[in-house]
Write a structure and sequence with these properties.
Layout lengths: L6 H9 L3 H10 L2 H9 L3 H10 L2 H9 L3 H10 L2 H9 L3 H10 L2 H11 L14 E5 L4 H11 L5 E8 L5 E6 H6 L17 E2 L4 H11 L3 E5 L5 E6 H19 L14 H18 L1 H9 L1 H6 L7 H24 L8 H30 L2 H31 L9 H24 L2
Parallel strand pairs: 1-2, 4-5
Antiparallel strand pairs: 2-3, 5-6
Helix pairs in contact: 2-3, 2-4, 7-9, 12-13, 15-20, 17-19, 17-20, 18-19, 19-20
Length: 435
């Protein structure tokens, strides 16, 4: 419609769609039609769509606005959304944004930007409803009505004392159902967890997911209430963390944005780094083959099964590494579980190896005869045990060394298993065939 200059139908299409649908379509457009589509939106609806866009697209739209419209849009954004946008923006853009904000909004944004990039402080909202621990239910309701329009959520209320120290959390449902004269502290839940502003954002987000809560109160080191982390922000954190893990498991640096918002050059740059590392690591395989060259010359049939062995070992290792990364991310596996995981994966590898080794033995017997077939079958069993064990352990060791487990994942494990699997293959060949 935009390509045909059909503005009337474009406006109707925008009016009939939800903000997240519009944001997805705008991101798929080139810069000029994307800006035009966004300008066709009514003012209030434009903000809803803007907050659904990724930071790259947000910056592109903002840079095309005049100072007044630029400042007005940013002033209306939630502080946590604004902080995430600025956290990924160039310094000049950040200065322009902060200069255009009101004093209160600038202070809240600067406060959030002062926390570490991956901490709860970058994702929480400082706009939380707090009520005195000495208040009645009626006074709490009045406070909620007073603060509702400016708060991130009213689903939970934080109880505080005179020093703003945390004294409990109350659900809105319980407040509404209680008598107005009841003390608000009588409704506080004992099982409501809190999170520290400096905690890792992903861990806090997964806590919300596990506890099925709509939000959690955020406190500082002195137990003073500083904000709230809501379920929608927690889901964004989890989505971002999972996307980063998937990217690293595929040997790609995380892009952090929509696929179509990244240029071809940027996509290539994100992918080439790990490919360079892996191509040098793959040189180990060449060195192993060169070392056992004499064995290959004596029994050339061994060369026929190298792709089968390498592929099987790599696949088994990749499966184990992926399972370990997921288990670590969900908190199912800890660093202290190293030996338990090793023993568990070794047994899994044995079962897989026996199954696949029988098949390899049968195929080998038909192609090259029993001696080489036995070598291949035994090698498959040994390689599967080794690959599963290595794949399960490397992410845990990475975690212990403060390295993202996803980095030590499928591609790196596969490359390592390729080289070491060939060593196992030729050692077994030497024992069985007397090389």
């Amino acid at each position: 419609m935009l390509a045909d200059s059909d503005v009337r139908h474009a406006e109707q299409w925008l009016a009939d769609r939800a903000p997240h649908e519009i944001a997805d379509e705008i991101t798929r457009l080139k810069p000029v039609p994307a800006a035009l589509a966004w300008r066709l939106l009514p003012k209030g609806r434009a903000l809803d769509v803007f907050e659904e866009l990724d930071s790259t697209q947000q910056q592109a739209i903002l840079e095309g606005l005049r100072d007044h419209a630029f400042a007005e849009l940013l002033e209306e954004m939630d502080p946590d959304d604004r902080a995430r946008l600025l956290g990924e923006a160039p310094a000049g853009f950040v200065r322009r944004v902060l200069a255009g904000l009101s004093t209160g909004e600038r202070a809240m944004t600067a406060q959030l930007l002062g926390y570490p990039a991956d901490s709860v402080g970058r994702y929480m909202s400082p706009e939380v409803v707090v009520v005195s621990v000495d208040a009645t239910v009626g006074q709490a309701l009045a406070r909620i009505r007073e603060r509702a329009a400016d708060s991130e959520t009213i689903d939970i209320v934080a109880l505080v004392d005179g020093s703003r120290q945390y004294r409990g959390t109350v659900d809105l449902k319980h407040i509404v159902l209680a008598a107005e004269g009841d003390p608000i502290v009588s409704l506080a839940r004992d099982d409501y967890p809190t999170i520290r502003v400096t905690d890792e954002a992903e861990a806090a987000a997964r806590l919300i997911q596990e506890t099925n809560l709509l939000a959690l109160v955020v406190v500082d080191s002195e137990e003073r209430v500083v904000g709230v982390l809501t379920i929608d922000d927690a889901l964004e954190v989890i989505e971002q963390a999972d996307s980063e893990d998937i990217a690293r498991q595929a040997a790609v640096l995380p892009s952090g944005g929509h696929y179509f918002s990244s240029s071809v050059w940027r996509l290539a740059r994100l992918r080439v780094v790990w490919l360079l590392v892996l191509i040098f690591a793959a040189a180990l395989t060449v060195s192993v083959l060169q070392f056992f060259e004499s064995s290959l010359e004596q029994v050339t049939a061994l060369a026929l099964f190298i792709p089968l062995l390498v592929g099987t070992g790599g696949n088994v290792g990749a499966q184990a590494a992926t399972a370990a990364v997921r288990a670590i991310a969900l908190g199912e596996v800890r660093t202290g579980d190293l030996m338990r995981v090793a023993w568990r994966e070794a047994r899994v590898g044995l079962l897989l190896g026996i199954t696949l080794g029988i098949i390899a033995l049968g195929v080998g017997s038909l192609v090259v005869g029993p001696p080489v077939a036995i070598t291949v079958g035994l090698s498959v069993i040994a390689v599967c045990i080794w690959a599963a064990t290595v794949g399960g352990l490397m992410p845990i060791l990475a975690r212990a060394l403060k390295i993202d487990p996803a980095v030590i994942s499928a591609p790196l494990v596969t490359t390592l298993v390729d080289a070491t699997g060939l060593v196992i293959y030729f050692l077994i060949a030497g024992a069985v065939l007397g090389l």
